[in-house]
């Protein structure tokens, strides 16, 4: 009889397939853990910002949230005579509104793209 030294091709392929399956499972579980860690960090950051805002409100003289300079406190001065660092507040508000409109337009494009992908998937499922 022949003296068998070594592994057959089938045995090697089975071992490689098992190692590949185990590594795939490990990578998938790590991706879920990464997403959970990222979400936990975001929640922590939001809580820190909230705590900072509450501390600032507690330390202010009025006990409220002072986000505008004292020159803007009078009624009617919000858009007419309120300057922040030499820039009229109305200019700042217009720029912020323009940025919000751009972001909303991008969001709508993304939503439309996702709907198109979903419709294509549904269409291909029924064909």
Written account of the structure:
The chain has 127 residues and is mainly α. 0% of the residues are buried. The protein folds into 2 domains: 9-60; 83-127. The protein has helices at residues 9-59, 77-80, 89-126, and strands spanning 83-84, 87-88. Strands 1-2 form a two-stranded antiparallel sheet. The chain has 3 helices and 2 strands. It is 73% helix and 3% strand.
Entry summary:
The chain is mainly alpha-helical and 127 residues long. The protein is built from three helices and two strands, in the order ααββα.
Global mean pLDDT? 77
> Over the alpha carbons, how many angstroms does the gyration radius reach?
30 Å
Number of strands: 2
Number of domains: 2
Helix content: over 70%
Query: Looking across the biggest beta sheet, what order are the strands in?
Result: 1-2
Terminal CA distance reads: 58 Å
Task: List the uncertain runs.
Answer: none
Features:
mainly alpha, 3 helices, 2 domains, 127 residues
Write the SSE topology.
Blueprint: H1 9-59, H2 77-80, E1 83-84, E2 87-88, H3 89-126
Antiparallel strand pairs: 1-2
């Amino acid at each position: 009889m022949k003296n068998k030294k070594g592994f057959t091709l089938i045995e090697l392929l089975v071992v490689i397939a098992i190692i590949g399956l185990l590594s795939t499972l490990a990578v998938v579980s790590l991706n879920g853990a990464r997403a959970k860690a990222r979400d936990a960090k975001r929640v922590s950051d939001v809580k820190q910002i909230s705590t900072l805002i509450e501390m600032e409100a507690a330390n202010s003289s009025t006990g409220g949230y002072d986000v505008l300079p004292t020159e803007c406190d009078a009624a009617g001065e919000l858009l007419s005579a309120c300057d922040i660092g030499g820039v009229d507040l109305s200019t700042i508000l217009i720029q912020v509104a323009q940025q919000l409109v751009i972001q909303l337009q991008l969001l709508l494009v993304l939503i439309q793209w996702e709907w198109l992908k979903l419709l294509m998937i549904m269409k291909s499922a029924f064909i």
